[in-house]
Amino acid sequence: MIAIFVIGYILIAFEHKLEINKATFALMMCSVLWTIYAASGMSADISTAIIHQLGDTCEILMFLIGAMTIVELIDKYEGFNFITKYVKARRKKKLLCALVLITFFMSAVLDNMTTTIIMVMLLRRMLIRKDDRWLFAGVIVIAANSGGAWSPIGDVTTIMLWMKNNVTTSDLIINLFIPCVISTLVPLWMACRMIKDDGITQATVKVASAPDPQLVTVNQRLSRLVLISGVAGLLFVPVFKTLTGLPPFMGMLLSLGALWLLTEIIVRKYHLDSSIEGRVSQVVKHIDMPTILFFLGILMAVGSLQEAGILSNMAQWLDDTIHEPYLISSSIGVLSSIIDNVPLVAACINMYPVVDPATLATAADPVYEALFVQNGLFWHLLTFCAGVGGSLLIIGSAAGVVAMGIEKMPFWWYCKRITHLAFAGYLAGIAAIWLQSFLLSL
Q1: Closest CA relative to residue 341, chosen from 293, 288, 287, 399
Q2: Phi and psi torsions of 246, nearest 5°
């Protein structure tokens, strides 16, 4: 099973080289691993084991489908254009600072991939020089990943840890906001020193093309209404979980249902053209299903390793040989820049169960075990490192991959010009977490 998982991992990591979607390998790996597990006879009731893992996986998938549909609906109503049209600056450094600030907070509410798409597409309308756009896009990727790490709904890995109750909303924000700000500001400061701060003139700005006369433009009031309603629906989810104790996907489904009702009323009242696809029933066709299927395959594959006891053995080996949360988490962050951080975090969640007070009271090493309680230091480190560490290489995060695809940014160019910026921010953020922990222990 380990050999199959490693082979599948390698194929997923090289999806762009192979030009085969990573969901293909994730689904095949999932099926093969569960088949081997069933044939081994290690489980007396394989159906119960599969249903248990599928239930946990579907909670995450339903949450993501709801969030992706809401974001897609906001985009269809041109809600994001309402934000980006107000981004103006006369000098490049000020423009970069403004874009990074918007990216950092927007990715905490939406997600890092969607935010990166919006901001990079904005860049294409603002800067004509390729080198300028690439540098700006690289820093935007860093800001998007850092911004998504301190919010419970800002990144897939953060969503996973939050839904599994490894971290709570308020504690996550309080403990990771400052480190994530630092991991953004350090690269931003370094990038500003690399920019020749000449003015933004007609020579550096792309001339906007004439609008398509057949394009249906939504009324600005409707754009603003759907934007505010969609963002409010996303922000409502953590509140719903806190008030009811129900899984977050239930709050997401409630928000999606409310937005569905709102858009049905809008379509009927304003007699909108069908080309705008203003209904959820139309928008849901455009969500990224290959990504959903990838998460299904990879999370179920990791679940098979958990059921077979492989992850618990690996956790024991790490405890015996390394026994240092900063080293374990920072290593996972570096690995997440090479291979997808979703299975890495899923594996860690299953390797290290949340320690309850009764277990902690009887632990042989209570100081170390205390790192793994709910909102423990290890989970904060893992959240930060897995999210921010993906910025080290352009293939290490969904934000980096979409930026590379839109801008045709070469892998080695990113390594030469951006990786050291991201690494400096990564180390500075980890240092900030250590300093916070040290001060709190005094």
Answers
A1: 399
A2: -80, 160
Residue 322: is its pLDDT beyond 80? no
Backbone angles phi, psi at 271, to 5 degrees: 50, 50
DSSP 347-389: HHHHHSPPBPHHHHHT-SSHHHHGGGBTT-HHHHHHHHHHHHG
Q: For the chain, how many residues are written?
A: 442
pLDDT band at 103 (very low <50, low <70, confident <90, very high): very high
Strand, coil or helix: what is 14? coil
Task: Tell me the pLDDT tens digit for each residue of 209-249.
Answer: 444 343 345 577 888 888 889 888 888 888 888 788 888 88
Distance separating alpha carbons of residues 200 and 198, to the nearest angstrom: 7
**Closest to 13 measured CA to CA, from 413, 416, 411:** 411
Alpha-carbon distance of 209 to 221, in angstroms, equals 24
Residue 373 pairs in a beta bridge with: 355
Whether 153 and 234 have beta carbons less than 8 Å apart is answered as yes
418 versus 366: the higher-pLDDT residue is 418
- Half-sphere exposure for 314 (CA within 13 Å, toward CB): 17
CA distance 131 to 194: 11
| Residue 315 CA: distances (Å) to CA of 178, 217, 255, 324, 387 | 29, 54, 38, 12, 21
> What are the phi and psi torsion angles at 355 (to 5°)?
-80, 125
- Is residue 288 predicted with pLDDT exceeding 80? no
Report the predicted TM-score, pTM, of the whole model to 2 decimal places. 0.72
CA quadruple 364, 368, 370, 371: dihedral positive or negative? Answer: negative
